[in-house]
Design goal:
Layout (H helix, E strand, L loop, with lengths): L6 H19 L6 H8 L3 H7 L2 H28 L4 H26 L4 H25 L1
Helix pairs in contact: 1-4, 1-6, 4-5, 4-6, 5-6
Length: 139
């Protein structure tokens, strides 16, 4: 078993990540309207922000794909198996240990609505699992 990052897997994870973000948060997506209501961010606010939020999203998705691919490779090498469930487990553990915990802390102290925390946490879970699945299928 050879450890290493599969670049096609990273690219696929980036595409999957961008698609999940669009489906989740776009104005036509699953939670776009609710997210706008809960955050108070209007379409005009988004237009005023310009391309900066999108650039942050792309950079974040790229870093997430690279880190997940590296983590999946390390776990695969350590365990001696390239089973798909291991990659999904890495995605879940990463979400649980880093994403859910930090988002929940910040939202609690910032007194954000619980519904917003659930929407964002569910997005991140879907993001991490979807990207890890793409990596696992192509790694």
């Amino acid at each position: 078993m050879e450890m290493g990052i599969s670049w096609p897997a990273v690219v696929a994870a980036i595409v999957v990540g961008m698609a999940i973000a669009w489906v989740w948060y776009s104005d036509w997506g699953l939670f776009g309207a609710i997210w706008r209501r809960l955050t108070g961010i209007s379409e005009e606010d988004s237009k005023r922000a310009g391309k900066r939020p999108f650039a942050v999203l792309v950079a974040s998705i790229i870093v997430t794909a690279l880190v997940l691919a590296a983590a999946c490779s390390i776990v695969s090498g350590f365990v001696g198996s390239d089973a798909l469930w291991l990659d999904v487990a890495v995605g879940f553990a990463t979400w649980l240990g880093f994403s859910l915990t930090t988002l929940t802390q910040h939202n609690a102290f910032e007194q954000k609505p619980a519904q917003l925390t659930v929407i964002n946490s569910a997005y991140q879970l879907t993001l991490f699992l979807g990207m890890a699945l793409a990596i696992g299928l192509l790694q």
